[in-house]
Amino acid sequence: MKQAYLATIIALERMHRQFLEVVKADLEQNGVHDINNVQALILYNIGEDELTVGELTNRGYYLGSNVSYNVKKMAEAGYINQQRPTHGRRSVRVKLTEKGTALRKRMDETFTQHCESLSSQINQDELIGANTSLRKLERYWLRQLGFGPRIANDPLFNTAAA
Fold it and tell me: 40 burial class (0-12, 13-18, 19+ CB within 10 angstroms)?
Protein backbone atom coordinates (compact mmCIF):
# COMPACT_ATOMS: atom_id res chain seq x y z
CA MET A 1 0.00 0.00 0.00
CA LYS A 2 2.77 2.47 0.89
CA GLN A 3 4.51 1.99 -2.47
CA ALA A 4 1.24 2.54 -4.35
CA TYR A 5 0.45 5.61 -2.22
CA LEU A 6 3.87 7.18 -2.84
CA ALA A 7 3.70 6.30 -6.55
CA THR A 8 0.32 8.05 -6.76
CA ILE A 9 1.67 11.20 -5.11
CA ILE A 10 4.63 11.28 -7.50
CA ALA A 11 2.37 10.62 -10.49
CA LEU A 12 -0.01 13.43 -9.51
CA GLU A 13 2.82 15.92 -9.23
CA ARG A 14 4.42 14.79 -12.49
CA MET A 15 1.10 14.83 -14.37
CA HIS A 16 0.31 18.33 -13.12
CA ARG A 17 3.65 19.61 -14.42
CA GLN A 18 3.14 17.80 -17.74
CA PHE A 19 -0.34 19.25 -18.12
CA LEU A 20 1.01 22.75 -17.49
CA GLU A 21 3.56 22.09 -20.26
CA VAL A 22 0.73 20.99 -22.59
CA VAL A 23 -1.13 24.25 -21.86
CA LYS A 24 2.09 26.24 -22.37
CA ALA A 25 2.76 24.55 -25.71
CA ASP A 26 -0.80 25.22 -26.86
CA LEU A 27 -0.51 28.90 -25.91
CA GLU A 28 2.77 29.21 -27.80
CA GLN A 29 1.38 27.33 -30.80
CA ASN A 30 -1.49 29.81 -30.95
CA GLY A 31 0.78 32.84 -30.65
CA VAL A 32 -0.27 33.73 -27.10
CA HIS A 33 2.76 35.16 -25.32
CA ASP A 34 1.25 37.65 -22.87
CA ILE A 35 -0.18 35.09 -20.45
CA ASN A 36 1.42 32.03 -18.89
CA ASN A 37 0.03 28.53 -18.47
CA VAL A 38 -1.00 28.96 -14.82
CA GLN A 39 -2.75 32.22 -15.64
CA ALA A 40 -4.52 30.56 -18.56
CA LEU A 41 -5.88 27.85 -16.24
CA ILE A 42 -7.05 30.45 -13.73
CA LEU A 43 -8.74 32.27 -16.61
CA TYR A 44 -10.35 29.01 -17.72
CA ASN A 45 -11.67 28.42 -14.19
CA ILE A 46 -13.22 31.88 -14.05
CA GLY A 47 -15.31 30.97 -17.08
CA GLU A 48 -18.44 33.03 -17.50
CA ASP A 49 -18.66 33.82 -13.79
CA GLU A 50 -17.84 36.99 -11.94
CA LEU A 51 -15.85 35.99 -8.88
CA THR A 52 -13.88 37.50 -6.04
CA VAL A 53 -10.25 36.51 -5.74
CA GLY A 54 -11.24 34.57 -2.60
CA GLU A 55 -13.91 32.61 -4.49
CA LEU A 56 -11.43 31.87 -7.24
CA THR A 57 -8.91 30.70 -4.66
CA ASN A 58 -11.50 28.36 -3.12
CA ARG A 59 -12.74 27.12 -6.49
CA GLY A 60 -9.36 26.38 -7.97
CA TYR A 61 -7.46 25.62 -4.78
CA TYR A 62 -4.78 28.13 -5.70
CA LEU A 63 -2.74 29.97 -3.11
CA GLY A 64 -4.29 33.37 -2.47
CA SER A 65 -1.14 35.40 -3.02
CA ASN A 66 -0.49 33.59 -6.30
CA VAL A 67 -4.03 34.27 -7.50
CA SER A 68 -3.76 37.97 -6.61
CA TYR A 69 -0.47 38.29 -8.49
CA ASN A 70 -1.77 36.37 -11.51
CA VAL A 71 -5.06 38.29 -11.56
CA LYS A 72 -3.08 41.53 -11.63
CA LYS A 73 -0.98 40.27 -14.56
CA MET A 74 -4.05 39.04 -16.46
CA ALA A 75 -5.74 42.41 -15.96
CA GLU A 76 -2.63 44.21 -17.23
CA ALA A 77 -2.67 41.97 -20.32
CA GLY A 78 -6.36 42.68 -20.93
CA TYR A 79 -7.77 39.21 -20.21
CA ILE A 80 -9.86 40.14 -17.19
CA ASN A 81 -11.53 43.18 -15.67
CA GLN A 82 -11.14 43.85 -11.97
CA GLN A 83 -13.76 45.80 -10.08
CA ARG A 84 -13.88 46.82 -6.44
CA PRO A 85 -17.42 47.04 -5.10
CA THR A 86 -18.21 50.32 -3.37
CA HIS A 87 -19.46 48.56 -0.22
CA GLY A 88 -16.67 45.98 0.18
CA ARG A 89 -13.50 47.72 -0.84
CA ARG A 90 -11.24 44.84 0.17
CA SER A 91 -12.76 42.32 -2.22
CA VAL A 92 -12.01 42.49 -5.93
CA ARG A 93 -14.40 40.96 -8.43
CA VAL A 94 -12.97 39.60 -11.67
CA LYS A 95 -14.65 38.82 -14.97
CA LEU A 96 -13.26 37.85 -18.36
CA THR A 97 -12.95 40.49 -21.05
CA GLU A 98 -13.65 39.71 -24.72
CA LYS A 99 -9.97 38.81 -25.08
CA GLY A 100 -10.20 36.50 -22.07
CA THR A 101 -13.40 34.91 -23.35
CA ALA A 102 -11.78 34.27 -26.73
CA LEU A 103 -8.80 32.56 -25.10
CA ARG A 104 -11.06 30.49 -22.87
CA LYS A 105 -13.06 29.38 -25.91
CA ARG A 106 -9.82 28.37 -27.65
CA MET A 107 -8.73 26.40 -24.58
CA ASP A 108 -12.12 24.70 -24.43
CA GLU A 109 -11.77 23.66 -28.08
CA THR A 110 -8.32 22.26 -27.29
CA PHE A 111 -9.68 20.29 -24.32
CA THR A 112 -12.43 18.90 -26.60
CA GLN A 113 -9.75 17.80 -29.08
CA HIS A 114 -7.83 16.18 -26.23
CA CYS A 115 -10.94 14.23 -25.23
CA GLU A 116 -11.53 13.06 -28.78
CA SER A 117 -7.97 11.82 -29.26
CA LEU A 118 -7.76 10.39 -25.72
CA SER A 119 -10.92 8.34 -26.24
CA SER A 120 -8.95 5.82 -28.30
CA GLN A 121 -6.73 5.12 -25.26
CA ILE A 122 -9.03 5.46 -22.26
CA ASN A 123 -12.81 5.45 -22.03
CA GLN A 124 -15.14 7.64 -20.02
CA ASP A 125 -15.80 4.94 -17.40
CA GLU A 126 -12.08 4.61 -16.75
CA LEU A 127 -11.77 8.37 -16.29
CA ILE A 128 -14.75 8.40 -13.95
CA GLY A 129 -13.14 5.61 -11.92
CA ALA A 130 -9.86 7.52 -11.76
CA ASN A 131 -11.69 10.67 -10.67
CA THR A 132 -13.55 8.74 -7.99
CA SER A 133 -10.28 7.42 -6.59
CA LEU A 134 -8.64 10.84 -6.72
CA ARG A 135 -11.59 12.45 -4.92
CA LYS A 136 -11.33 9.82 -2.19
CA LEU A 137 -7.64 10.59 -1.82
CA GLU A 138 -8.38 14.32 -1.74
CA ARG A 139 -11.08 13.83 0.91
CA TYR A 140 -8.61 11.81 2.97
CA TRP A 141 -6.03 14.60 2.80
CA LEU A 142 -8.64 17.23 3.65
CA ARG A 143 -9.71 15.20 6.67
CA GLN A 144 -6.06 15.09 7.75
CA LEU A 145 -6.18 18.89 7.69
CA GLY A 146 -9.43 19.01 9.66
CA PHE A 147 -11.69 20.00 6.75
CA GLY A 148 -13.88 16.87 6.73
CA PRO A 149 -17.26 18.36 7.74
CA ARG A 150 -16.83 21.40 5.46
CA ILE A 151 -16.59 19.25 2.33
CA ALA A 152 -19.51 16.92 3.06
CA ASN A 153 -21.93 18.82 0.83
CA ASP A 154 -19.44 20.19 -1.67
CA PRO A 155 -20.46 19.06 -5.20
CA LEU A 156 -16.78 18.78 -6.15
CA PHE A 157 -16.56 15.78 -3.84
CA ASN A 158 -19.68 14.01 -5.00
CA THR A 159 -18.16 10.81 -6.36
CA ALA A 160 -21.21 10.19 -8.56
CA ALA A 161 -20.47 13.36 -10.54
CA ALA A 162 -18.48 12.90 -13.72
Answer: buried
